[in-house]
Amino acid sequence: MLNLIIIGAPGSGKGTQAELIQENFGLRHFSTGAQIRREIAAGTEIGILVKDCVARGELVSDDLVNKVVESAISQDKEGLIFDGYPRSIAQEEILDQLLSKYHETPLRAFIYLDVRKELLLERIIERGKTSGRADDTPEVFEDRYRAYLKETQPLIDSYRKKGILVEVDGNGTPEDIYNNSVKPLMESYLK
Ligand code: AMP
């Protein structure tokens, strides 16, 4: 069993790599952003509460995100690929508590996709042409990137200090990043 955390800025390729891992290794991809967008589309209580915040590129309150995460963790005892969670030191502490509550061996691995900012913006603009996401615009990207620097960068730094972070150069094509870095890592974790 493995809980894999893929961490990186908006547009770093977390979702793309998580999909490739899911296809090839059978671990379920769980994206808090995607789940939140489903809640918004379905007009659920949570969806209504978070809609404006997501459109502005701000982080949703921990209380609401944690509900979404607890529901996924309690159903998937085999482990998950976490994409977009945890996004702050506070969320990391809650994830710790949730994993020890629901999973017998809360084994975790951490992959950081490191991508330069100009490329992140290019990818978000490209994705915005087809994603239909209100937050895939150059303006909202800047706010999402600011939230990333403020909340997520300290978490990345703390994983790095603990020596548990695997840093992957995410500036290439999805296939190259997967074949050269992510796939061999997964093989070493799951052997
Ligand atoms: P993403 O698809 O990961 O880029 O997430 C899209 C948006 O969903 C973010 O900009 C936030 O508004 C919200 N969101 C997703 N994951 C989280 C999280 N872990 N904590 C707070 N907000 C989140």
Classified by CATH, the class is Alpha Beta
| CATH homologous superfamily heading | P-loop containing nucleotide triphosphate hydrolases
β-sheet strand percentage: 5-15%
**In terms of structural class, how would the helical and strand content be classed?**
alpha/beta
Helix content: 55-70%
Strand order, main sheet: write it out: 2-3-1-4-5
- CATH topology-level name: Rossmann fold
The helix/strand series, from N terminus to C terminus, equals EHEHHHEHEHHEH
Identify the bound ligands.
adenosine monophosphate
Number of individual domains: 1
Number of strands: 5
Tell me what the CATH architecture is: 3-Layer(aba) Sandwich
Number of helices: 8
Largest sheet: 5 strands, parallel
Shape: globular
| Regions with little confidence, pLDDT below 50 for 5+ residues | none
Distance between the first and last residues' Cα: 11 Å
Provide a short characterization of the protein structure.
The chain is of the alpha/beta class.
Q: Can you walk through the features of this model?
A:
The protein has 191 residues and is an alpha/beta fold. It has a single domain, classed as P-loop containing nucleotide triphosphate hydrolases (Rossmann fold), CATH 3.40.50. Helix content is 62%, strand content 14%. It has 8 helices and 5 strands. The protein has a 5-stranded parallel sheet, sandwiched between helices. The longest helix is centred in the C-terminal third of the chain and has 25 residues, at 138-162. The protein is globular, with a radius of gyration of 16 Å. The mean pLDDT is 96.
